């Protein structure tokens, strides 16, 4: 087995004594840093390379901290004004994962970069920590790279805000295929609009 395969197997055994100790020490270090902080190298090099990371100019890694927990409905004093079926405030869950939220935080903080992908690195009772791979679309090393220059196209601006990254597509239900997935593509709203629009032909 290659070195990356050993790293992958170590990360699969997160409850081993070595990993528990290492993650506990790392988590303390992460808590002292700011919410979005730049790293010199990925914590999980095997995972980062699988997701498109290259150790070259124009590709950077940021660690993002996201607060854990569900999504409380933002209604003043919990007053929702409506029928009881929609009166819930507390036990609601967000439609998007915390990983997608971390990508969004990174994309907003670093507007000149494009989000490529992300992965989990640590968590404690309050926060989850993700590392986000970002690419500089104006860097010549990226613009001349045949495998990365697709992201320089203007259509990929803020792809993390539009559900185009892997985490965003998962939240949109676009990972599967086959029977009944025609209700998901191109999107749930587009399918609803197509099926509910009244189309009146001019000559009928």
Question: How would you describe this structure to a colleague?
Answer:
This protein is α+β, with helices and mostly antiparallel strands and 204 residues long. Helix content is 31%, strand content 16%. A four-stranded antiparallel beta sheet has the order 1-2-4-3.
Main traits of this protein?
204 residues; alpha+beta; four-stranded antiparallel β-sheet; 7 helices
Would you kindly provide a brief summary of this structure?
The chain is of the alpha+beta class. Helices cover 31% and strands 16% of the residues. The protein has a four-stranded antiparallel beta sheet.
Topology:
Blueprint: H1 3-12, H2 17-32, E1 36-39, H3 45-50, E2 59-67, H4 98-109, E3 114-123, E4 127-135, H5 140-143, H6 166-171, H7 188-196
Antiparallel strand pairs: 1-2, 2-4, 3-4
* Secondary structure: helix percent: 25-40%
Structural class: alpha+beta
Spans with pLDDT under 50 lasting ≥5 residues?
Answer: none
Number of helical segments with 4 or more residues: 7
Mean of pLDDT: 95
- Main pleated-sheet profile: 4 strands, antiparallel
Principal-axes geometry comes out as globular
| C-alpha Rg (nearest Å) | 21 Å
* Percentage beta strand: 15-25%
The strand line-up of the biggest sheet is: 1-2-4-3
Order of helices and strands: HHEHEHEEHHH
Number of E-type strands: 4
Distance between the termini: 69 Å
């Amino acid at each position: 087995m290659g070195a990356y395969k050993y790293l992958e197997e170590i990360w699969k055994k997160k409850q081993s004594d070595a990993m528990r100790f290492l993650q506990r020490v790392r988590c303390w270090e992460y808590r002292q840093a700011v919410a979005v902080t730049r790293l010199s190298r990925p914590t999980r090099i095997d995972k980062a390379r699988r997701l498109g990371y290259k150790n070259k100019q124009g590709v950077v890694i940021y660690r993002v901290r996201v607060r854990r927990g569900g999504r409380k409905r933002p209604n003043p004093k919990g007053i929702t004004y409506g029928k009881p079926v929609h009166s819930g405030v507390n036990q609601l869950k967000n439609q998007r994962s915390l990983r997608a939220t971390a990508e969004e935080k990174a994309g907003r903080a670093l507007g000149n970069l494009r989000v490529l992908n992300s992965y989990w690195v640590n968590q404690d009772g309050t926060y989850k920590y993700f590392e986000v791979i970002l690419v500089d679309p104006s860097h010549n090393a990226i613009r001349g790279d045949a495998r990365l220059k697709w992201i320089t196209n203007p259509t990929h601006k803020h792809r993390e805000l539009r559900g185009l990254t892997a985490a965003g597509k998962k939240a949109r239900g676009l990972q599967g295929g086959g029977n009944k997935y025609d209700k998901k593509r191109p999107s749930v709203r587009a399918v609803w609009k197509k099926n509910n629009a009244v189309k009146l032909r001019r000559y009928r």
